[in-house]
C-alpha cells in the first residue's frame, strides 16, 4: 500500500524499504481528519493465506463465532495433549521399570499432576470469562498460558476445517479478559497497528479516530515490521487490526510483553484486500485506553 497524506489528523507511519529503519512521524494533531490523497491497493497475500484458492470466502469473509466455540476446541486440545502424555507413559513404563522400579509410578504421578493443574487452570479461565470476577491475574490468563493454548487450539481447529471461526472466538475471549483490566495510558503511549489491506473508507475512518485522540498509527505490512515498530516506539499499549490468522500469531508473539486489544477484520473481497472493521468498537477501544 502506498499512502500520501498531508495535514494528517493522526501520525501515519509507513514501513521502510528493506534495510531502512521505520520512520515515525510526529504526533501533533493539525486537523481533525487525515486527508487521504491516493491509495494504491494490490493483493499481496500474507503467508497465512498461501493456500487460498481465489474463491469467495465463507460468509463474505466474516468469521464471527461465539466464545463457546473456542472453549469447546480448547477443551478438545487439552484432552488430546493429556492423552498424549498418558500414551507416552504407557509406552515407556515397562522400559523405565527395568531402570528403576519406582520410575514408572513417579512418571505417572507427574503426568497426573500436570493434567489436574491444566484442567483446573482451564476451569478458572472459563469462570473468569463468563463470571463477574477475574479469578486469574493477566500473567496467568490472557497474557500468559492462554496465548499458548490459543495457538495449540488453532492447530487442532485447522484439522477440522474451522480454523478461522475458532481463532475469531479465541480473540473474543482474549479481548473480553483484556478489556476488563481497564488499563489506562497516555495518548502518546498508545500505538495503533493496521494492515496494508484496509479499504479506503476504513482507512479514512481509522485515521480520523486516531487523529481526534492524538494516537500514532503504523501500517504493518509484515508481522516482523510490526514487532520492530513496537520495539522502537515502546508504547505502553497497542490496538491492533488484522485478520484472525495474523492476529492469533501476533498476539502470541507480542501480548505477553505489552497489553494489546486485537480487532479482527471482515474480508468481503477475500484476504488481503479492501478489508473492513467495526469502527464503533475501534473508537471505543482507543477511547478506553486514553481517556479517564
Number of DSSP-assigned strands: 7
C-alpha termini separation: 35 Å
Q: What's the CATH topology name of the largest domain?
A: Rossmann fold
What percent of residues are in strands? Answer: 5-15%
Main pleated-sheet profile:
5 strands, parallel
Order of helices and strands: EEEHHHHEHEHEHEH
Discrete helix count: 8
Shape: globular
Rg computed from alpha carbons, rounded to a whole number of angstroms: 22 Å
Structural class: alpha/beta
Give the overall average pLDDT: 86
At CATH level 2, the architecture of the largest domain is: 3-Layer(aba) Sandwich
CATH top level of the largest domain is Alpha Beta
Characterize the structure shown.
The chain is α/β, with parallel strands linked by helices. The chain is built from 8 helices and 7 strands, in the order E-E-E-H-H-H-H-E-H-E-H-E-H-E-H. Helices cover 48% and strands 11% of the residues. Helix 7 links the parallel strand 6 and strand 7.
